[in-house]
Amino acid sequence: MKKVYSKIESITGNVITVRAEDVRYGDLAEVDTTFGTSLAEVNRLSGDLVSLQVFAGGRGISTGDTIRFLGHPMEISFSENLLGRVFTGSGIPRDKGPALHENLITIGGPSVNPAERIVPRNMIRTGIPMIDVFNTLVVSQKLPIFSISGEPYNELLARIAMQAEVDVIVLGGMGLKYDDYIFFKDTLEQGGALSRTVMFIHTASDPTVECLMIPDMALAVAEKFALQDKNVLVLLTDMTSFADAMKEIAISQEQVPSNRGYPGDLYSQLASRYEKAVDFEKAGSITILGVTTMPGDDVTHPVPDNTGYITEGQYYLKGGRIEPFGSLSRLKQMVNGKTRKDHRDIMNGMIKLYSFYKETLEKKSMGFMMSAWDEKLLRYGVRFEKEMMDLSVNIPLERALDLGWEILADCFTPEETGLPTKLIAEFWPKNTV
User: Fold this and answer.
1) Rounded CA gap, 404 and 424, in Å?
2) Domains and their CATH numbers in the chain
């Protein structure tokens, strides 16, 4: 039987402090007030002085309220019954469905032993040419989507959730507007993907501490599904909200701040989540895509800056499109040589010509006379942006590669593309030779 403590030393915002023994970092406690019972989590230990973050906030708590430590960290139920359900950061059903209590698992455990991992070797098809052709998403990869506020990153995640060739989708939403939550739910339901999706949603009006729980809940569930031979795609939005929640709690505890007020362990906190990406030898896999918004479009901001050292590339979302020059999938070479023999050459050739198109746009804006080659590049750039870069385009990889050849054939002669002669002989559209 755990002891009950009835003297709270201090109340600072949502953080309460009590003197207690035999308590571990991350343990849960119940705080009994005149308004009911609230959950709290131990987030700081200093001798026998224990600080707890109260989920429902510090309002209504008095120094005479009782605290009972539960002796375990946050747990979440795991079973097939999770599929199609929506939960809060406390594990409470948000969809008005029944609460689940069977087969409880602890969240926030260590990442998988490297000896149990295998080298990434399979792609995840999404139907989005700028991903499948130019920056292929690989099973067990961890990739951020760098964006600024106002870009359609949630719409992109919803499309990936509907179209990705995986067994299970786990969506973790942090600091979402209620409209964004409804958008995800309605889009996945109408697209027929909700039945293979588990959603953990923290809205901007929910307690701050619940925001910190979302990635751990999503990844704990994902790991269990992966051990059942499922390929799982974890979508997290927005990891900057997660970092801001860390910052808010650290400030309330008067921790010494680091860069721009974020706690000094920001890198470790982010890495401990992203490193959960894994491909098991004799089981399934976990692939992570996490949105990271950049305040002021500043890539040197601590959150994207630290994220870039952890992950295996990034997608830059700019102007409503995935920007080809800033985006990078460092693992794409592991798979795009196995898809179709023209994949790498089409990828490199089209991006090279698109860079020439960008240079031509600059020349045109400065009033230079356009040559015949410049006119070809201008025509090519318009088609490339409309038919390949537009996020509304939804075609399989093979059709995207064929479309690449068609665009090249419409704008250039075979010699002007710089592609290998053998590939031109095999893939160049016959009616244009």
Assistant:
1) 12
2) 4-73 (2.40.10.170), 76-332 (3.40.50.12240), 343-432 (no CATH)
